[in-house]
Amino acid sequence: MITIGRAGIDLYSLDLYAPLEEAVRFARYVGGSAANIAVGAARLGLRSALITRVSDDELGEYIVRQLSRMGVDTRFIKKDPEGKVGIVFAEIIPGRDGRFIFYREKASDLLLRIEDIPSEAVESAGAVVITGTGLSAEPSRSANYYALELARRGGSKAVLNLDWRPSLWRNIGEAERLKYYRKAMEIANIMIGNRSEYEAATGKTDLEEALKTARDINSEALLVATLGREGSIALTSKGEIVRAKPYIVSHLKGLGAGDGFIAGFLYGLLKGWDLYRSLRFGNAVGAIVVTRHSCSEAMPTYDETMEFIEINGGF
């Protein structure tokens, strides 16, 4: 599996329950949706690589070393002397979603270029995952479209992780945003997102309408929606609807659940599992991640996930 996009620094508060403005102690992790999914896939046992740019400094080197340590192939990560890796500060309020702040001035991952995309590797991958954030600026936008097209041409699963982060689409109006998302949705053969992400990608204010619009845009794609405590759902091009109930846990934080789900769900598809089992496996990985402090390092192994599933009633 190849992921493309954000790889940055997560600074998560160690002062539990403290609001962000009062938190003093933070733990540092590799973060960013693309990096998290890549780690999740590697932890589960897939061959996993990340394509991105990081800053040519100590933080960029930290990201490359940590990803390599966690089993991710880093040969397609380029160091950019002009860009800076993004940094996220997050409060940790057990039992509910805490606030977080992005610092992404001249973000290195958005400097990714078409020439950074290794065509042979992308065409031969089992799955290629791009993110919505990668569509928010050039030259990254063109590079992501190119990667999706290569994946489709090579017969890979071309996955659009809708990944909506409003603060990362500064100075881009709704009409432009919808145009950029639409083009990626037309190319992808799998779309994955939560309610707000589908709504942001389609301009609708209701999940049902958003899914209908996504289907109108691409009649052949598999549409997957994560619904929190309602589990997850997949809609096939043939009109089949598959629902998978969640695993209920006491969560430490909400961050990382979607990335964990994507890693687990795609693991199932790449192993030839049916949609229901793949959805439930994704639900399990996401549930485990939210009980742990980090996102990337919280990703469970295959054995940990299967043990969790068995303890919690099975598939």
Give an overview in words.
By secondary structure, this protein is an alpha/beta fold. It has a single domain, classed as UDP-N-acetylmuramoyl-L-alanine:D-glutamate ligase (3-Layer(aba) Sandwich), CATH 3.40.1190.20. 37% of the residues lie in helices and 20% in strands. The strands form two sheets. It has a nine-stranded mixed sheet with strand order 5-4-1-8-9-10-11-12-13, with helices on both faces. Strands 3-2-6-7 form a four-stranded mixed sheet. α4 links the parallel β8 and β9. α1 packs across α8, α6 crosses α7 and α8 packs antiparallel against α9. It is globular, with a radius of gyration of 18 Å. It starts with a strand and ends with a helix. The mean pLDDT is 97.
What's the SSE blueprint?
Elements: E1 2-4, E2 8-13, E3 26-31, H1 33-44, E4 49-55, H2 58-69, E5 77-80, E6 87-90, E7 100-103, H3 119-124, E8 127-131, H4 140-153, E9 157-161, H5 174-187, E10 190-194, H6 195-202, H7 207-217, E11 222-226, E12 232-235, E13 241-244, H8 257-270, H9 275-289, H10 302-311
Parallel strand pairs: 1-4, 1-8, 2-6, 4-5, 8-9, 9-10, 10-11
Antiparallel strand pairs: 2-3, 6-7, 11-12, 12-13
Rounded Rg: 18 Å
Low-confidence stretches: none
Tell me the domain tally: 1
Q: Strand sequence of the main sheet, in spatial order?
A: 5-4-1-8-9-10-11-12-13
- How many β-strands, per DSSP? 13
Count of runs of 4 or more consecutive helical residues:
10
CATH topology: UDP-N-acetylmuramoyl-L-alanine:D-glutamate ligase
Q: What is the CATH-assigned architecture?
A: 3-Layer(aba) Sandwich
Which geometry do the CA atoms define?
A: globular
* CATH class descriptor name: Alpha Beta
- Give the SSE string: EEEHEHEEEHEHEHEHHEEEHHH
